[in-house]
Specification:
heterodimer; A: 269 residues; MetI-like fold; 76% helix; B: 283 residues; mainly alpha; two-stranded antiparallel ribbon; 13 helices; 75% helix
């Protein structure tokens, strides 16, 4: 394969600068010693990171986002496993339609979902509650969980299960000792991708979160709408740091390409 | 065991029937309800909201702006993202893996944090982008980016760029390098190879990336809201205002349902076009 020429590499450098510039700017400004937005030149300071401690709404929103992501992703994976096994192993009437239905939250704009959930939860008395947030997040992260569990269920070598059956294992033993351990990596990566998507979700959540049930991205968004000051840059810098850390772990564990290529395919369909 | 697959799908099906289909149907119905400042939402069947959304020039302008922004975002993403995917694909390990991580990674970083970065870069007349452009002598006076369509387009193109790179990257993986080598061996220059060999084969990838980027750009909320401010309204920020400030839910629902219908029509139309045009590629 031929190599990239100097023009291609210069273009590449510009492109990477474009992609990284806004992210790096946020991290730089977070270290300003001043009381206003500015680049730290000669002095760096952590004052705006300490200042986060004085705003308990950011701290509580962070913990809420963490729990929301963990719980809704776990439930989404739990619902995905049987559905993935059905779709991967059986040819049944309505199989395609069901798959399309379960993948549909990728195609419906989150704005529309947010409005639909706001109306629905208000009618059934779940408006502004944590339970409502969990239900809505299960729906939007389910396609990610399903995609990765489905990939591992399809890739499963069924002769191993047949061997277990021929050696006298019962159906439940096969499921517990053979099938589930084999799809486990898919479950874990599905959970991780679902968690990240729940943790970042803002467009839908901004409609259904009430004061007291705001997630971290919603809290940040509402704060920015009022004013942009160094405090919100230090909060963003923390979020970026956590995401980058999670990204590196995920890349090591599963390979980011696999996670994301699987993710993109559904959007186009 | 003919019922087995259906039984396995029951939990997901119950969830989707109850928490996706019912709310969506309720939203469509909501768009036909009446609303008044003092009486609130009245569950009657009227066409008032739809007449207003389809007939009022304010809404025409707002939808035109929404799709204009989405169009330019898609154009920017295709023009700049596709070459980058090609360059990435020609890199050797470990650089390929590292830069793939650098370019796709931002997809997982909070949209709010990434948009905040653009707000800082644009930042009024003294923003870094303007300083850099003036320093290079490209412009003489600062350009307005905050609260303008230009600013929203640039920030959204950054937010959605990874989807385009990803789609083109995926289609490049299916490309056989021997075809390129054959063209070179037969005397084609590098430009001819790109135009006649590579581009036709990655075109389906670019188009599927364009569909994703367009749909996400037209319904994006956080970025147009932060960069565009309160005056530069797009469909999503207008719907948000109707729901959480004016409290005219039926009108907001009509805007959202219309956006959804328009997007479904556009995505379906493009997919039809792609399938017909590239039937031989997919076959």
């Amino acid at each position: 394969m031929s190599r990239n020429g100097p023009i291609a590499l210069a273009y590449h450098a510009l492109f990477v600068t474009f992609m990284l510039a806004p992210i790096l700017v946020v991290c730089f400004v977070a270290f300003t010693p001043e009381g206003y937005l500015s680049f730290p030149t000669d002095r760096w300071s952590l004052r705006w990171f300490y200042a986060i401690a004085q705003y308990p709404e950011f701290i509580s929103a962070f913990w809420r986002s963490l729990w929301l992501g963990a719980i809704s992703s776990a439930i989404a994976v739990g619902i995905s496993v049987p559905a993935a096994l059905a779709i991967a192993r059986y040819r049944f009437r309505g199989r395609e339609a069901l798959t399309a239905l379960f993948m549909s939250p990728l195609m419906i704009p989150h704005l529309v979902l947010g409005i639909a959930f706001l109306r629905f939860f208000t009618q059934i008395g779940l408006g502004g509650t944590f339970a409502g947030l969990v239900l809505s997040h299960i729906v939007v992260v389910l396609p990610f969980a399903l995609r990765l569990t489905l990939a591992s269920a399809v890739g499963l070598d069924r002769s191993i299960e047949h061997a277990a059956v021929s050696l006298g294992a019962s159906e439940s033993v096969v499921l517990r000792r053979i099938t589930l351990p084999l799809v486990l990596p898919g479950l874990v990566s599905g959970w991780a991708l679902a968690f990240i998507n729940s943790f970042d979700e803002v467009t839908m959540t901004v409609f259904i979160a009430a004061p007291g049930t705001e997630t971290l991205p919603v809290r940040m968004f509402l704060y920015i709408q009022d004013n942009i000051d160094p405090l919100v840059t230090s909060v963003s810098a923390c979020v970026i740091a956590i995401t980058v850390l999670a990204l590196l772990v995920l890349d090591r564990a599963f390979g980011l390409e696999r996670l994301l290529i699987g993710r993109s395919a559904g959007h186009g369909r | 065991m003919r019922a087995a697959p259906y039984l396995l799908c029951v939990p997901a099906l119950v969830l989707f029937a109850g928490v996706v289909i019912v709310p969506l149907v309720m939203t469509v119905l909501l768009s036909f309800h009446d609303w008044g400042q003092y009486k609130g939402i009245e569950p009657v069947f009227i066409l008032k909201n739809w007449q207003e959304v389809l007939g009022d020039s304010y809404f025409h302008e707002m939808f035109a702006r929404t799709f204009r922004i989405a169009f330019f975002v898609t154009l920017l993403a295709a023009v700049f993202g596709a070459p980058e995917a090609y360059i990435l694909n020609r890199m050797r390990s470990p650089w390929r893996g590292i830069f793939l991580l650098v370019i796709l990674g931002p997809l997982l970083i909070s949209v709010v944090a990434r948009t905040l970065g653009w707000a800082l870069l644009f930042g009024g007349n003294s923003g870094i982008v303007n300083k850099a452009l003036m320093g290079m002598g490209l412009i003489s006076a600062p350009l307005p980016f905050m609260f303008t369509e230009t600013g929203v387009v640039i920030a959204l193109a950054h937010v959605l760029m990874p989807y385009m790179v990803l789609a083109v990257w995926a289609s490049l993986q299916r490309l056989d390098p021997q075809v390129e080598n054959a063209a070179v061996a037969l005397g084609a220059g590098p430009f001819t190879v790109l135009r006649r060999i590579v581009l036709p084969q990655v075109m389906p990838g670019i188009l599927s990336g364009a569909v994703i980027v367009f749909a996400l750009a037209a319904s994006a909320f956080a970025t147009p809201s932060i960069i565009g401010g309160r005056r530069l309204k797009v469909a999503s920020t207008l719907a948000y205002d109707e729901f959480l400030n004016t409290l005219n839910w039926p009108l907001g629902a009509a805007v959202a349902v219309l956006l959804l219908l328009a997007l479904v029509a556009i995505v379906w139309g493009v997919n039809r076009l792609v399938e017909r045009r590239y039937a031989q590629v997919f076959a």
